[in-house]
């Protein structure tokens, strides 16, 4: 084979590889988005069947640290706006932070009728352990703490608290009985495996709004799928998925 043909084939291989890579992306997503984001990806791929999207779930703070340390994520969907803003401030984002929805928190239990509970009930002797997400790394845990402080029960509950690294772990702790009650994302307690037990939605006036945002990461700056998915999140189809799974959205 001539040198010219070898060079030409090499060029084609590089172009093909680049094109293939451009049809894929990996999202780092807050645990509160499971399985909402799975539904969003399914809806997105109806019109984009050639786009491959994989998702890694975790606590927003942990994912932020991983991105800053070079983790191979093209897109970040946080449970708040602070962590996406941090990526932007530190030069690790290729887009401005944008709100995709607003989260809510709820009381849920596998063994107690949480639909009849209030925050004040968490201080009762019959409640031994209360699970929340770790406030330092999980925005839902931070809002749970704010709500209990605003309701005046923080001091009565503080010694009962057990912490999950992310909100999915909190749901698992409450579901398994490791905690008597969990303060869980509404998006999780609305799912079939938890919804049958009932829940109490916590008054949003008791905590700061839980605006949740996304950024395209620096690694995803030239990723066509990341750009297309960012635009998809503002469509009526995406908004319908968010609403169906317990998020408020701006039209």
Give a verbal description of the structure.
Helix content is 40%, strand content 20%. The protein is α/β, with parallel strands linked by helices. It has 2 domains: 3-102 and 210-244, 3-Layer(aba) Sandwich (D-Maltodextrin-Binding Protein, domain 2), CATH 3.40.190.10; 105-201, Periplasmic binding protein-like II (D-Maltodextrin-Binding Protein, domain 2, 3-Layer(aba) Sandwich). The strands form 2 sheets. A 5-stranded mixed β-sheet has the order 2-1-3-10-4, with helices on both faces. Strands 7-6-8-5-9 form a 5-stranded mixed β-sheet. Helix 2 runs antiparallel to helix 11 and helix 3 (60-68) runs parallel beside helix 4 (82-89). The chain is globular and about 55 Å long. Mean pLDDT is 91; it is low at 4-21.
């Amino acid at each position: 084979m001539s040198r010219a043909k070898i060079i030409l084939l090499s060029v084609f291989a590089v172009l093909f590889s680049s094109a293939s890579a451009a049809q894929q992306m990996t999202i780092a997503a807050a645990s509160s988005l499971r399985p909402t984001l799975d539904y969003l990806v399914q809806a997105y791929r109806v019109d984009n069947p050639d786009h491959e999207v994989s998702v890694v779930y975790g606590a927003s703070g942990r994912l932020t640290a991983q991105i800053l340390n070079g983790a191979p994520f093209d897109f970040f969907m946080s449970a708040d706006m602070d962590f996406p803003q941090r990526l932007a401030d530190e030069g690790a984002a290729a887009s401005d932070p944008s709100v995709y929805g607003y989260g809510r928190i709820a009381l849920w239990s596998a063994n107690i009728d949480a639909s009849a509970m209030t925050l004040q009930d968490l201080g009762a002797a019959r409640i031994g352990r209360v699970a929340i997400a770790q406030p330092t790394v999980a925005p839902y845990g931070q809002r749970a703490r704010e709500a209990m402080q605003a309701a005046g029960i923080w001091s009565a509950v503080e010694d009962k608290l057990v912490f999950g690294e992310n909100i999915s772990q909190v749901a698992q702790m409450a579901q398994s009985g490791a905690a008597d009650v969990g303060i869980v994302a509404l998006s999780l307690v609305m799912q079939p495996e938890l919804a049958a037990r009932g829940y109490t939605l916590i008054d949003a006036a008791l905590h700061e709004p839980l605006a949740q945002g996304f950024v395209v990461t620096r690694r995803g700056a030239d990723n066509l799928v990341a750009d297309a998915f960012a635009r998809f999140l503002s469509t009526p189809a995406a908004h319908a998925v968010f609403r169906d799974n317990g998020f408020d959205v701006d039209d």
